[in-house]
Amino acid sequence: MDELTPGGDRPPSGDGLVQVAYLHPHHVSHSWHESMMRLISYDAGTSGRIIGTGGPFMISCSSGALVESRNTAVRRWLDGTEHEWLWFVDTDMGFAPDTVERLVQAADPAERPVVGALCFAAREIATDGMGGRRIAAVPTLYQGARDAEGNAGFTTMTTYPTDSLIRVAGTGAACLLIHRTAAEKVRAQFGDCWFDRVRYGDGRWVSEDLSFCWRLSAVGLPLHVHTGVKTTHHKAVWLGERDYWQPEPEAGRGGD
Asked: Across residues 195-210, what is the average pLDDT?
């Protein structure tokens, strides 16, 4: 795992603008709405990378249409605009006003064309004996791995360096910045199927976002996550006495 240095204040290539795209089931989390309002206000007072576009791609999407909807967003961006970057953000995410600016500053069209923020998923780890589940937060940071049969796949990085730009094999698309040249390179080899799901060697389907990560690797493009660009993820959980008495998480769990 390589730790890298952010790009800093370099001249942008292309038009420097960031096309926002999000999928929605006709409702969004308030934390996402408030975060987006603050981000637009911040952008208007600084670089104008977002407000300089024609507005976000707001794509209605059911849970079964993630692949088609994400592919549609990328196609609209490439064919309908000249904007340099695409920023996918899920509508159950919370994020800081400077999130996009920090991702752009960390990215580089040639060396770091795809950069994600630090996001977490909710993983069911056990039943709670009352019809619910015990939930644990896990980072959506993945490295390459092989199972006992030698099949290639992804495994979660349970520890990671804090406030660092790190190279990963996979991450989610919940808060992901993509450079135009990266999407074009994937298109040139695979066609307009950036997020079409692929299969593991044992036949199981890979999620649409990790399938995109696989295609990036297949065309020789690196993928990075900035663990200093933090987010929250609005999820429903079961709470009980066990959660109440659970000790506070130890400081520095992310690792150094």
From this structure: 91
